[in-house]
# Entry
Amino acid sequence: MKIRKLFYILLVFPLLISCMNEDDASSVVVVVSPDKKGDVYAASNIRFEISTFTINDYIKELSIYTLDTEGETLNYRINPNVPKYSETYYYKVPQVSKENTEIKIYVEAIDNLDNKCRFALIYNVLGSDLKELSAIELNSPLSGYNDGINIETKTSIRRSQLTLNDELNSFWLKQFTDEEKLQQIDYLPLEFNTSQIESRISFAINNSFNYAEATSTSLKSAYSASISNNYISNIKTGDIILIGVDNEGWGVMKVLYIIDEEGYVNDKMIINIKTIE
# Structure
């Protein structure tokens, strides 16, 4: 048994750095990949490949903790009950109230003899450099409610009440013609329009763009690589729409829901938008 344990220690010695403060570190090993420490954006996802093993009978417990400004939190726990265990774990970085918040992630394994190893990762969480506007309702132009967005105020607006200056700084759902209004056409226009005089705003659908982890850099890069236009049609639920202002990436929209019921009063599109501050 002593020879087996010595061989085991020599084999895994390079991996034991994170456990060297534990009296029983030689019995249990935890390996996490990637083990990089550095900056991450709030609300982003980190994927970890976790492996643990023991020279004793089995790993009794594998736990993942986080330590941040709110204290230590148990995020995950499982009882493998096998000598070697591996799995993939996804960690959702929380939203933070201030820039450069430190978060520590601990992966801890305990074997059947209560020997343990705790692997530590330290990240600096960067607050998102985009501002998100959530659950914005763009209603049917016939409903009498707001049906567009003003890029200056970053608020919803009603197209029919815009001044000329506001019109240049806004986009809206396609408006009905006078004839269609008289007929009270029963459908929700799935098209965004802008001013026909001197539009500053343009759009490009890019459903491969990572909305959840969007940054100003990724937004500007994706927009500059896209073909844009000052209108966009055939909008569908789930579409990711890049928005440019003055030929530069300004924001990104995600279409959450399209509600088109009988009649037009409740017809609406519900969206989220992230914009550069």
Q: What stands out?
A: Confidence is low (pLDDT under 50) at residues 1-17, 20-24. The domain at 2-126 is CATH 2.60.40.10 (Immunoglobulin-like). The helical segments are 2-12, 164-168, 178-183, 216-224. The longest strand covers residues 248-259.
